[in-house]
Amino acid sequence: MKKTNRLFIISAALVSLALGACNKDLNLTPPSNTIVGNDGQGTAGSYIKDATTAEAALNSCYAFFRSGSSEYYVLDYFNIGDAQSDNAYAGADNAAGFEIDEFRLLSTNAWASRDWGYLYNQITACNAVIANVPKVTDPALTANRKAQIVGEAQFIRARAYFDLVRIFGDLPLVLTELPTITADNLEEIYPLLYPARKSADSVYAQIDADLKAAAEVVPVSAANKGFVTKGAVYTLLAKVAATHKPINWAQVENYTNQVTALGYTLLPVYDHLWDGAHENSAEAIFELNFAGWDTGGNWGTSMFLGTDWKKFCNPSNDLIRAYQYEKDTVRFKSTITFANVNGKWGDARLSLDSFPFFYKMRKTDATQNIIMYRLADVLLLKAEALNEQGNVGAANTIVTQIRERAHLKPLEITDQAAMRLAIEKERRLELAFEGIRWHDLVRTDRAIPVMQAVTDGKGVNLGYRLTPESLLWPIPQSEMDQNANLVQNEGY
């Protein structure tokens, strides 16, 4: 629907109400996937009335990781974090993926639209919990558990907003549920129906507030790493602090210390993180658990691995060279596998005799877990924080610790600038295909120089042309068309 049509309809509705032509409840669908009750009464979360429905509402927030937004978490999360970076090419045959990979993104890009929707849908589910669970008076829901439920929802909401703000920049900040829309409150509710974008600073402030509140109430441990714990909260606080400028590196260090104090340990064998036999390990901090197709299976593996059709997120020549130059055979073998695909498809950049595949997801029975946060990531963030505060020696010790597991020689770096680049490289080799690389490059102001220097397998520059504006995605045109209060990002 065009903006002019949308505005005409709303204006007509306001006039009609003012004239008393209609006094029934209205059923308008607001943007950003904020919803009202299916029966037109109350809010989406008005069904939350007792302990059972409170737990069910929280489960619905978690369910978005496995089903409601699974296309984001098992596929697009990696396309954004790795295929958009120098780690991989988009692969497959999807034009929307090529636009993202080659920085030719349009506001009509289908992936951008769906990811906006998936994340806002998850936020909507969290809003229902945060707004309604505190109102429950059922004695079966203890005050402690009530606070935990809200805290877990606040973490999930903050995690979704963190991805959104890094992808799109300024955002509509949807934090409440809409009441039933009536003749008396339509004008008041209009800004909630069609919210304007808030500054990225405002979004980060809300993320920070949600996480600090969650840190006070969520447990230290849970049944498995698929539930929110203090470790997950402090990890996300550290990531947020290392992203939102101006960066307070002492704060980043503090949050990483909060995580390490909780007793997580590196697995002695790197491949155990990915072999499917050591899930919910001592290194994992937050991990999406998949049990099979009946409960929202992880179908992402078949999107990245296999020779039946050309897969997404094909490892780049640049990443393959990075492992080879470092002689990093341990992480290389765990991260990338190869197969002969002659006669199956063509590729202008990669060898068909030895075609590379993303290998950190391997199980094709829908049970492969996805590690979202783990200790090695946190330790390298701590090394970064220490280095930026001038403690190069302590940073060197941490990076060497990470390298030892990969059977690589210790580092002996004393220069801060050299250590900065060493940490960048170590994060790439350690965390490739975990949805992290692109966001690392952007937050460290390295995306433009790194991407514009990327070459193919023959050393020919790939010709990526980035601008500061292209570091953000456009607001989806579908959202712009239905909400006249949205303003497009520069450059689109």
UniProtKB/TrEMBL annotation:
Subcellular location field: Cell outer membrane
Sequence ranges assigned to domain RagB/SusD in this UniProt record: 362-492
Signal peptide: 1-21
CDD domains membership: SusD
SUPFAM superfamilies, A to Z: TPR-like
Predominant subcellular localization, coarse grouping: membrane
Keyword Acetylation: no
Source species, domain of life: Bacteria
UniProt-listed InterPro entries: SusD-like_N, SusD_RagB_dom, TPR-like_helical_dom_sf
Keywords on record: Cell outer membrane, Membrane, Signal
Domain SusD-like N-terminal residue range list: 101-240
Family recorded in the similarity comment: Belongs to the SusD family.
Protein name (Swiss-Prot/TrEMBL): RagB/SusD family nutrient uptake outer membrane protein
Lineage: Bacteria, Pseudomonadati, Bacteroidota, Chitinophagia, Chitinophagales
